[in-house]
Amino acid sequence: MTVDMQRTLINSNRSIDAKEGMRLWYEDQVHIEEEEEEEEEEEEEEEEEEEEEEEEEEEEEEEEEELHRNKDHRKKRKRKRRRRRRKRRKEEERGKMDVNGEEKGENFTSV
Prior knowledge:
There is one protein chain. This protein is an all-alpha fold. The chain is 83% helix and 0% strand. It has 1 helix and no strands. The protein has one helix at residues 3-94. It is rod-shaped.
């Protein structure tokens, strides 16, 4: 083998190695980009899930507040009824009202 043949062989091997190196580098770049895209998609999915969870929590809180308001409203109505009953009983005891809640003396007609 002559020196020129050896140089040609070495240069062709270098060229092959360079091409292979470029191919491997390109494949690595593509693989890296795919991984980055997958990570971004996963992050987006996680963010969406977190947003959905936050929305659900807000809805639950609103429902709890609504229930609490309804309970408060029921309590107020109950208190009002109790007060009216107590007032009616006291007035009945004093003789101002009859059992039906009407004032005595109003129902008779003058002749």
